[in-house]
Amino acid sequence: MSVFELLSQYGGKYMLALLTTWKLTFLAFLLALSIGIIITIMRICPIKPLRIAGDFYVQIFRNIPGAALLIVLVYALPYLNLVWSYYVCVLTATSLIPSAFCSEYLMAGMNTIGAGQIEAARSLGMTFFKIIKNVVLPQALRFSVLPMTNLLVATMLTTALASQVPMNPTDLTGIVSYINTRAVGGVTAFLISAILYCITAVFIGQVGNLIDRKVRILR
Amino acid sequence: MSTGNFSIRDALYEAPGPKTKKRMIIATAISLAVLCWLLFLVIRQFYITGQLGAKYWNFFTTYAT
């Protein structure tokens, strides 16, 4: 089938799949960002068990392959009487892994803040949470805009995991197997998905660069 | 200041005073209890669903398959 045949027959489905991918990406990234911030605060707080738990969390979810995590969520959790919908499973897998990376990026962003600034804040009598809220997090977030852009793209590509479980509506990778089981789409079906992925990634990259230029701290 | 591997984690707080020390001990105890509770919940779920049964774990003790 040619590109035009595919688009005329399955164009609507492709749009739906694109929207699903966008929605998954957006939700997963928001979750990853919030979990990442919480984990990062745990990792820098003075309470030892929380530090260790945060480090442990990052080590686990940074090193687990996405497909393996999805398999655990879909096939192993039901043995523990935890049956989640496929959508929730995919969303969990695609937000837990980026959250570990998010925490690492934030830690890297934090380490660029001079220790002198924090000592200054401390000598002004700020409490730990005040320092985090007013000095550390704003700068760490501004420093990590570009890594976060990469993370958003990586999250979008991770949502291709959704094609491994039955979902309705499915995502951009899932739609290819949907088409190829019903018609002879071949590589062309992949091409359309790839182009849509590319457009999204380039758009995210441009917006990320724009934000970075706006909020970058010049030294 | 830049001697050794001095990281941002060390800059965030100084040596705690007696009051803070007490508060930190309490917070440590609470967080430890919460983490243990979470671990307990996981193990309990394993136990309830029978996943701790010997037949699932025996093969770790066998020398070869």
Name the descriptors.
heterodimer, A: 219 residues, mainly alpha, MetI-like fold, 9 helices, 80% helix, 0% strand, B: 65 residues, 3 helices
Please write out the topology.
The complex is a heterodimer of chains A (219) and B (65).
Chain A: H1 3-44, H2 48-63, H3 66-76, H4 86-111, H5 115-123, H6 128-143, H7 145-158, H8 172-182, H9 186-215
Chain B: H1 8-11, H2 18-48, H3 54-57
What does it look like?
Chain A has helices spanning 3-44, 48-63, 66-76, 86-111, 115-123, 128-143, 145-158, 172-182, 186-215. Chain A is mainly α and 219 residues long. Helices cover 80% and strands 0% of the residues of chain A. The longest helix of chain A is centred in the N-terminal third of the chain and has 42 residues, at 3-44. Chain B has three helices and no strands. The model of chain B has no long low-confidence stretch (mean pLDDT 81). The N and C termini of chain B lie far apart (55 Å). With 65 residues, chain B is an all-alpha fold. In chain B, 3% of the residues are buried. The A-B interface holds A 43-44, 46-50, 53, 79-82, 110-111, 113, 115-116, 118-119, 122, 128, 131, 136 and B 1, 6-9, 11-14, 16, 24, 27-28, 31-32, 35, 45-46, 48-49, 51.
> How many separate domains of chain A?
1
Largest sheet of chain A: none
Count of individual beta strands of chain B: 0
SSE topology string of chain B: HHH
Inertia-based shape of chain A: flat
CATH C-level class of chain A = Mainly Alpha
How many whole angstroms does the radius of gyration of chain B measure?
21 Å
For the record, give the distance between the C-alpha atoms at the N and C termini of chain B, rounded to a whole number. Answer: 55 Å
**How would you classify the helix and strand content of chain A by structural class?**
mainly alpha
Write the element-wise H/E pattern of chain A from the N-terminal end onward: HHHHHHHHH
Mean pLDDT over the full residue set of chain B: 81
Number of strands of chain A: 0
> What is the end-to-end distance of chain A?
55 Å
Categorize the overall geometry of chain B: elongated
CATH superfamily of chain A: MetI-like
Gyration radius of chain A (Cα, Å) is: 21 Å
The helix tally of chain A amounts to 9
Classify the helix fraction of chain B into a percent range: 55-70%
Estimated share of beta-strand residues of chain B: under 5%
Largest sheet of chain B: none
